[in-house]
Amino acid sequence: MSDDLKCPQCGSEHVYQDGSLWICPECAHEWNPETAASDAAAQAAQGGVRDANGNPLADGDSVTVIKDLKVKGSSLVVKGGTKVKGIRLVDATDGHNISCKVDGIGAMNLKSEFVKKA
């Protein structure tokens, strides 16, 4: 086990190495620490939050959810194709960088990789 590595997805300390990849047994996320650092630097250089197609997002934009998303702690599902208006971009360490209100569900946070600009 590594004392200095944590899962970038869920923050778990219970990660293990398999070849060149590190694996989190709690969320099944796999990553290479060397390329992950360069990917984060590249995204910071691009500037801002981007949707699944690579389009830059800004506060107040409207987005469309591209796949069904389960809502944690409930039996509700945000269906693919749901349009969300008036998003806010937030800095979140867990990857949920969009704060919004979804009709029929309420306030929630989304990951930009699961939406496209409308």
Automatic annotation (TrEMBL):
<dbReference type="InterPro" id="IPR013988">
    <property type="entry name" value="YjdM_C"/>
</dbReference>
<dbReference type="InterPro" id="IPR004624">
    <property type="entry name" value="YjdM"/>
</dbReference>
<feature type="domain" description="Protein YjdM N-terminal">
    <location>
        <begin position="6"/>
        <end position="32"/>
    </location>
</feature>
<feature type="region of interest" description="Disordered">
    <location>
        <begin position="38"/>
        <end position="57"/>
    </location>
</feature>
<feature type="compositionally biased region" description="Low complexity">
    <location>
        <begin position="38"/>
        <end position="52"/>
    </location>
</feature>
<dbReference type="Pfam" id="PF08274">
    <property type="entry name" value="Zn_Ribbon_YjdM"/>
</dbReference>
<protein>
    <submittedName>
        <fullName>Alkylphosphonate utilization protein</fullName>
    </submittedName>
</protein>
<feature type="domain" description="Protein YjdM C-terminal">
    <location>
        <begin position="49"/>
        <end position="118"/>
    </location>
</feature>
<dbReference type="InterPro" id="IPR013987">
    <property type="entry name" value="YjdM_N"/>
</dbReference>
<dbReference type="Pfam" id="PF03831">
    <property type="entry name" value="YjdM"/>
</dbReference>
<comment type="similarity">
    <text>Belongs to the YjdM family.</text>
</comment>
